[in-house]
Amino acid sequence: MDQIEVIPAQTRQVGSPYYDINPSGRVPSLVLDDGTILEESYLICRYFDSVGHGPQLVWPAETHNWQYGQLVALARSFLDGIAVLGREVRRPENEQSPTIVAHERSRAVRLADILETRLQTETMTGPFNLAHMILLGAIDSGSRYFDWTATDNRPKLKQWAEHLRTRTSIATTSPFDPL
What we know:
Number of strands: 2
CATH class of the domain at 61-171: Mainly Alpha
Radius of gyration: 17 Å
Order of helices and strands: HEEHHHHHHH
Strand content: under 5%
CATH topology of the domain at 61-171: Glutathione S-transferase Yfyf (Class Pi), Chain A, domain 2
Largest sheet: 2 strands, antiparallel
């Protein structure tokens, strides 16, 4: 943390000062000392893995850990669905697609149910990794933006998310107030 300055991003706002840092407006992004901008969690985590001393955030393909790869894919799908749902429900009500809203809500519920059953796997209980970050982002985004909480009636998922939120790296960089 002593090498990182956290700058809150205000995207989708005309003239946002964030666009001076990252013209694409994508979040997250990391600006290296030489001015190179890395955006997208996967690339940023690979960079941290190359310079850091903590747990390996991205498990290389050569480990043949397909459980990890499957979890990353599931996490991305979960977050993608939450993002689509978020954009849809923020549109004026008369412009929203009930089909998209229903589809994405159903996907979120299905994936949260799957996660509840997989919390005892090595990938979920092992060292902090990229899949954990993506999943917590999806859980917290869904909980903050919609009338649905992924951890409702899922005690294992709730405990897992609460534990991750206590990590210094999560607590100091989360755009959300603690639940």
